[in-house]
Amino acid sequence: MKGKKVFQGTVLNDFMGLSRAHWKEVRATVQSLFANGSKLADNQDLRKKAIHAASEVTLHLPVKIGDYTDFYSSRSHAFNVGSIIRGPQNALNENWLHIPIGYHGRASSLVVSGTDLIRPRGQTKAKDAKVPSFTECKRLDFEMEMGAFIGGTANELGRPLKVNEAWNNIFGFALLNDWSFRDFQTWEYVPLGPFTAKNGISTLSPWIVTVDALEGC
User: Between 20 and 30 A from 12 (CA), which of 62, 130, 136, 200?
Assistant: First the structure.
């Protein structure tokens, strides 16, 4: 990592752009700083300068997100959402059983956890209505999901990341709250998929748990 100043910015993108070997090196270095007998552990003045209470700081998004994709995470998830939109008899589309089903979300709507939600307005159509109406969302839904951050240099344009390469290119995970406006979604999602129903807000934890931290549990 000599010569690379990846921690001088306000986000982790430059650090995430390195390899997993670098991520491991930094994790080991940070652990050594807090180990028993280290200068940081034994020096109270140094600890006051280096460590800040969580209650005294403002947490932000950990990375600058240029794009993200939202997937169904399980069969039960896909069935429940499909039941809301199409009914239980047609909940699972045929393609779900064969390929990952997802959509590209609106990256600019990703905000740090704790951000206030402004209830959106959009177009919807009741089953017994002759024409749609423009109204405030009445079927606000949220789902706790897991976000995976892809790092490294393998996922270049035109070069898909292979399954057996994925683990070494996943930087870490964070909790994601996927807000949905279901009354808008049932009206607008055919044929191109989510639009206003998913564009309002998605909240993301400021904390990323790295793959190596999980493997060490």
Answer: 200
